[in-house]
Structure formats: C-alpha cells, structure tokens
Design a protein that fits this description.
alpha+beta, two-stranded antiparallel sheet, 11 strands, globular
C-alpha cells in the first residue's frame, strides 16, 4: 500500500513537471559599431549566406525559416526586393555524451531508477534508465549589415548548453536571446533567459 502511494506521488510530480515550461539560458554578447548608423525599426531585410551556407542550402533554409518569426518580434520584416538590411544567421550544434559521474542529474551509481513498469515488484515495478546521456552545445550568431554600403550595424552571439535535442524549439529561443536589447546592443557578456513550452 505504501509502495503504491509513493508511486502515485511520483507520477503526480512527473506529470506536473511535464506540463511546465523549460528555460533556455543563453550567454549573450552583442556589438554595435560606434560608427554605424542606428537601426530604425520597423525595417526590411533579406537573408545573406556565406559560401559554406550556400553549399548546404536546404539546412540553411530551415534555419532561416526559424529566424523569420523571431526577427519579426523585433520589427524586422523580410523583403528580398526592397531590403534595407541583410541578415546572416549561423547555427552550430555539438553533441556530447557523458557518463553518470559527470552528470548532476545522477548519483554515483551506474543507473538511476525512476518511473514505473512491470518487473519483480509487479505492476508498480521500477524501471532502470541508463545514466549516460547526451548534452548539446549550441551557438547562434546574427550579423546585420546595411545594404547600401554592406557595413555591419549589429552583431550578436548566444551560447547555450543543455539536454534538449529539439533544435526547432531551442534555436528560436536562442535567436531571441541574441537579439535581446535590439537595436541597441547592451555592453558586455550577459545571461538571457527565455522560457519555452516543455
């Protein structure tokens, strides 16, 4: 009876956690050249691609599709024919694997036990989850240039490390963090937190 009560409590906690928001915390550094003319929003832009990005056009198009609604939040509207600015977006993702002793999520044991299923304890038996896990280090950079003279008017980078593998959700949050304070770049390295649905 006590075991069943404990399991129900764990289930309630897990359900509550699954319905909550998750935090994408990024380390951000931005630059606005002193000689650059201030950006007046709303403004129009087109995407610019490096040769390496042109070589992987399909992947870059996906990144740009994620960026469009985020840029709109900051008063930037895509207009390839009458663009006042060009925007270059770069995303890098590195996946690392860790063992149990490297993870704050697990103790010193090789396995961590959580959840329920069938086993020696019957219907409410515990399920073992391997403690080695993947983490993802991401970097997002945004460079904005004025189209008449191709001069950089805004540059920003955001870095984040976490266990979430869904780039389609995390990358837009990092872009939003990179543009925090736009069009004026706050000085120095700062932490920007963006909440997204779990």
């Amino acid at each position: 009876m006590k075991l069943a009560s404990c399991v129900l409590c764990v289930a309630a906690l897990l359900q509550a956690g699954c319905s909550s928001m998750r935090l994408v915390d990024s380390d951000v550094v931005s630059f606005t050249p002193a000689a650059a003319r201030p950006i007046a929003v709303p403004a129009s832009y087109r995407f610019e691609r490096l040769p390496s990005q042109q070589a992987r056009a399909e992947q870059q198009a996906q990144v740009e599709a994620l960026a469009v609604p985020v840029l709109a939040l900051f008063g930037l509207k895509r207009d390839d024919q009458a663009a006042q600015y060009s925007v270059q977006i770069d995303v890098r993702v590195q996946q690392d694997r860790h063992d149990s002793w490297e993870s704050p999520w697990f103790g010193v044991s090789r396995h961590h036990f959580i959840g329920f299923g069938s086993g020696r304890y019957g219907r409410f038996g515990l399920v073992a989850i391997h403690s080695d896990f993947a983490s993802y280090r991401r970097e997002v950079s945004v460079v904005i240039r004025s189209t008449p003279d191709n001069q950089v008017v805004y540059e920003s980078r955001a870095q984040h490390e976490g266990r979430w593998s869904d780039d389609a959700a995390v990358v837009p949050a990092m872009l939003q963090a990179a543009l925090n304070g736009f069009p004026q770049a706050p000085p120095g390295l700062r932490k920007v937190n963006i909440e997204i649905p779990r």
